[in-house]
TrEMBL record:
One of its GO terms (molecular function) is DNA binding. Residues 6-73 form the HTH merR-type domain. InterPro entries: DNA-bd_dom_put_sf, MerR-type_HTH_dom, MerR_fam. This is DNA-binding transcriptional regulator, MerR family. The keyword Transferase does not apply. It comes from Pseudomonas borbori. Keywords: Coiled coil, DNA-binding.
C-alpha cells in the first residue's frame, strides 16, 4: 500500500500557483493545518483540496469567513448535502450582489455620459 501524497510548502505553492506567504496566511487563519516534521510543514492531499476551495471561493467573491464556513461543513459521509445547499445559497447571494453592482455601474455610466455632454456643450458656448 502506498503512502498518501504529501507536499512541502513550496511544492504546494508551486502546484496551486500561489506564494508560500499565501499558504502561511491561510494556515494562520486556521484553514490549513499541516503536520510538522521538525520545522518542516507537511501538507496532505486534503490540505491541497482545501486550498483549491479557498482560491476558488476568493475568485468568485466569497469572503474568507464564508470560505471557512463552507470548508467546515465538509462531510463526505453525509454526501456533503448541507455544504452543497449552503454553497448554492451563497452563490445565489453573490449573484444578486453582482447584478446590483451591474445596475449601479450602468447608472454611473449614464451619469458620466450626462456630465460629459454638459461639459462638451459648455465648451462649445462662446466665452462671455
Amino acid at each position: 500500500m502506498s503512502m498518501p501524497r504529501t507536499y512541502s510548502i513550496s511544492e504546494l505553492a508551486r502546484e496551486m500557483q500561489v506564494t508560500t506567504r499565501t499558504i502561511r496566511f491561510y494556515e494562520e487563519q486556521g484553514l490549513l493545518v499541516p503536520q510538522r516534521r521538525g520545522q518542516e510543514r507537511i501538507y496532505s492531499l486534503r490540505d491541497g483540496v482545501t486550498l483549491r476551495l479557498i482560491l476558488r471561493g476568493k475568485r468568485i467573491g466569497f469572503s474568507l469567513a464564508e470560505c471557512k464556513e463552507l470548508i467546515g461543513m465538509y462531510d463526505p459521509a453525509g454526501g456533503n448535502h448541507k455544504q452543497l445547499s449552503r454553497f448554492l445559497e451563497k452563490i445565489a447571494g453573490r449573484r444578486e450582489q453582482l447584478e446590483q453592482q451591474i445596475l449601479d455601474i450602468q447608472h454611473m455610466q449614464l451619469e458620466l455620459n450626462t456630465a460629459e455632454q454638459r461639459c462638451q456643450a459648455a465648451l462649445r458656448q462662446p466665452a462671455v
